[in-house]
Specification:
- The protein is of the alpha+beta class.
- The chain has 2 domains: 113 residues, Peroxidase, domain 2, CATH 1.10.420.10; 35 residues, no CATH class.
- 28% of the residues lie in helices and 9% in strands.
- The chain has a two-stranded antiparallel sheet with strand order 1-2. Strands 3-4 form a two-stranded antiparallel sheet. It has a two-stranded antiparallel sheet with strand order 5-6.
- Strand 5 and strand 6 form a beta hairpin.
- Helix 1 packs across helix 5, helix 1 packs across helix 6 and helix 5 crosses helix 6.
């Protein structure tokens, strides 16, 4: 998607917020993909099918299924910070181990974790950042310099969110029409390689 190494690491750093859901390990737990749901006349895709207790529990807490991976990336998943990168510094290199997560997928955790580190998640793509010289250097920079992470993320996020196709001439912002400087961005397009089947 035309991202350089810095933008790639910054965007992966969005794992600073939230968690991944996949504690339910039931066949077909994720529900129908969008193309299947719409073909069936259902306007909602990925409706979780897990329910350990009642209908009111479907799709909530441990009954949630999106990616099939389970866990938070940081100890404060509701706070924007650089802890995601801090826990991937060289001293953590040999501390992450692969295991079968509750959703049945391979994921990573800190070996023998206790306290707030227990249950932290890394995907293989996250751990790979520690083993690539270029990515690792950026991870270390963001771990020690929150401003550098903020600035890189801001730039990468703007580019990502402003090149998903051409804006409609009737599109609007909170304050009226979309500013011309946004419409003039050279990144206001989608690449052929960005197309996916859903």
């Amino acid at each position: 998607m035309e991202n350089d190494d810095r933008a790639t690491v910054a965007l992966i750093g969005a794992h600073a917020l939230g968690k991944s859901h996949g504690a339910c390990n039931t066949a077909g737990a994720q529900g129908l993909r969008p193309s299947e749901a719409y073909a069936a006349g259902n306007g909602m895709a990925w409706q979780g099918l897990c329910d350990s207790n009642t209908a009111s529990a479907t799709g909530k807490g441990y009954n949630t299924w999106t990616s099939g991976f389970e866990g938070a990336w940081t100890t404060k998943p509701l706070v924007w910070d650089n802890e995601f990168f801090v826990k991937m510094q060289p001293e953590y290199l040999d501390r992450w181990e692969v295991f079968d997560g509750p959703g049945g997928h391979k994921q990573w955790r800190i070996k023998d974790a206790t306290g707030e580190d227990e249950g932290l998640l890394r995907l293989t793509s996250d751990v790979a950042l520690m083993y690539d010289a270029n990515y690792s250097a950026i991870v270390q920079e963001f771990a020690t310099n929150m401003t550098a992470f903020d600035d890189a993320f801001e730039d990468a996020w703007f580019k990502l969110t402003h090149r998903g196709g051409f804006w409609s001439p009737d599109s609007k912002c909170d304050t009226g029409t979309i500013p011309q400087w946004i419409l003039d961005q050279s990144s206001n397009h989608m690449l052929d390689t960005d197309t996916v089947v859903v």
